[in-house]
Amino acid sequence: MRISPWLWGAFLGAVTSLPLMALMFLASQLALVPFVPFDLFDWIARAMPGNVLAVLIDSMVKVILLLNWGRSATLPSSSSRSSPSAQW
């Protein structure tokens, strides 16, 4: 049985990135260094044109409202905190 290269790549990405994120989080807590996914996401958000960022935020709010995940005033802030980790 031959495994799809896409599936194999997704598996290797998960196997390597999850422990790396755990180590970076541990370093950020113990050594008080910045958590790399948050800094990378912050840099991308600052370098991105404002209209692109507005479209992304509007899309995120529409999905939250469409799926009825919770109040639109509180959920985007918690989901935006998880976006850097998902992006990494």
Q: What brief labels describe this structure?
A:
single chain, 88 residues, mainly alpha, extended
What do you see in this structure?
The protein folds into 2 domains: 1-32; 34-88, no CATH class. Helix content is 78%, strand content 0%. The chain contains 4 helices and no strands. The protein has 88 residues and is mainly α. It is extended. The chain has helices spanning 5-30, 36-47, 50-67, 75-87.
Q: Please identify the oligomeric state.
A: single chain
- Number of structural units classed as domains: 2
End-to-end separation in angstroms reads: 31 Å
Report the mean per-residue pLDDT as an integer: 80
How many helical elements? 4
Alpha carbon gyration radius: 16 Å
Low-confidence stretches: none
Major sheet size, sense and barrel closure = none
Strand % is under 5%
Helical content stands at over 70%
Basic shape: extended
Number of strands: 0
Strand/helix succession: HHHH
Care to give the gist of this entry?
The protein has 2 domains: 1-32; 34-88, no CATH class.
Fold blueprint:
Elements (H helix, E strand, L loop, with lengths): L4 H26 L5 H12 L2 H18 L7 H13 L1
Helix pairs in contact: 2-4
